[in-house]
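Our preliminary data section would be incomplete without showing what the modeling component actually yields. Below, a chain of 156 amino acids is followed by its predicted structure, encoded as tokens that our downstream tools consume directly.
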Amino acid sequence: MAPSVTHVTGTVAGGVEVRFTQDGIAVCRFRVTETPTQWDATAQKWRDLEPIPYVCTAWRDLASNAAESLVDGVSVLVKGRITGVKDDSIYLSIDDLGISLRRRIAYTETSLPSPIAARPVTAPPAPQPAAASRPSTGRPGSPPAWWEQKRSANWS
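Predicted structure:
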């Protein structure tokens, strides 16, 4: 009988342990806690049920990527095969793993924002008042100072 495949949505609980076999193959292990919810019709709200603990094991590239990407508290989507039930935990051998985008943004190596995006934004300099082209002589509409200088020098 083939092991049953299951999909789990939960939260990483604790750190990710990574080890290597004698052949250099990466193996990681981490815990995921799924908290199912149920609609309570009398209270007209959702209520949390008993959390379900999973012990997840991943191999090779998936193990290396999981060790680099996962931290405590991250919501994940897991596809795996049930390999056993022991000590009130369900053991899964992971086939695929993803970070849930429901409550966060995830960047990939190709979609990382550029360093320019991380640069602090500086406010543009405040505009300076325009220099007066004519001195204030107290009379509106009087000619500029250079006009008076040329006129007094007989326009030379």
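The longest helix spans residues 60-69. DSSP finds three helices and eight strands in the chain. Preliminary results of this kind motivate Aim 1 of the renewal.
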